[in-house]
């Protein structure tokens, strides 16, 4: 919504047993800038906390990443309907 767009999605796939991220998908405005964080996370064999705890400015497109990561941990304050 920060860009005036009202649609888009951020999806993260995670191996619950090993606590490792397996996939990172973004569709919508700003996706090309945001997906680089996902690529880096996959390259470094990241866990969900590696993407949940960095500081994300507000308002920013990056908040979509922390929102989906908080959703994986059942901590989302704005869960998807």
Structure description:
This protein is α+β, with helices and mostly antiparallel strands and 81 residues long. The protein has a single domain, classed as Enolase-like, domain 1 (2-Layer Sandwich). Helices cover 35% and strands 21% of the residues. It contains 3 helices and 2 strands; from the N terminus they run ββααα. The chain has helices at residues 31-43, 48-52, 63-72; strands spanning 8-15, 20-28. Strands 1-2 form a two-stranded antiparallel sheet. The longest helix is centred in the middle third of the chain and has 13 residues, at 31-43. The two termini are 16 Å apart. The mean pLDDT is 81. Residues 2-66 form the Pyridine nucleotide-disulphide oxidoreductase dimerisation domain.
Highlighted features:
alpha+beta; Enolase-like, domain 1; 2 strands; two-stranded antiparallel sheet; 81 residues; 35% helix
Brief description of this entry?
By secondary structure, the chain is an alpha+beta fold.
Going by CATH, the architecture would be 2-Layer Sandwich
Strand pairing plus helix content: what structural class? alpha+beta
N/C terminus separation: 16 Å
CATH level-3 fold name: Enolase-like, domain 1
Fraction in beta strands: 15-25%
Radius of gyration: 12 Å
| Structure annotation, total helices | 3
Low-confidence stretches: none
Name of the level-1 CATH class = Alpha Beta
Q: Which H/E pattern describes the elements?
A: EEHHH
Helix content: 25-40%
What's the pLDDT, averaged over the residues?
A: 81
**Total strand count, please?**
2
Taken from the alpha-carbon principal axes, the silhouette is globular
Quick one: CATH superfamily? FAD/NAD-linked reductase, C-terminal dimerisation domain
* Largest sheet entry: 2 strands, antiparallel
- In order across it, which strands form the biggest sheet? 1-2
Pfam families: Pyr_redox_dim (PF02852)
Domain Pyridine nucleotide-disulphide oxidoreductase dimerisation: 2-66
Organism: Virgibacillus necropolis
Protein name: Pyridine nucleotide-disulphide oxidoreductase dimerisation domain-containing protein
């Amino acid at each position: 919504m920060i860009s005036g767009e009202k649609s888009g999605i951020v999806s993260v796939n995670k191996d619950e047993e090993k606590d490792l991220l397996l996939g990172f998908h973004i569709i919508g405005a700003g996706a090309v800038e945001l997906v680089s964080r996902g690529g880096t996370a996959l390259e470094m064999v990241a866990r969900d906390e590696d993407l949940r705890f960095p500081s994300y400015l507000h308002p920013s497109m990056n908040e979509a990443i922390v929102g989906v990561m908080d959703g994986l941990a059942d901590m989302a304050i704005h869960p998807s309907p």
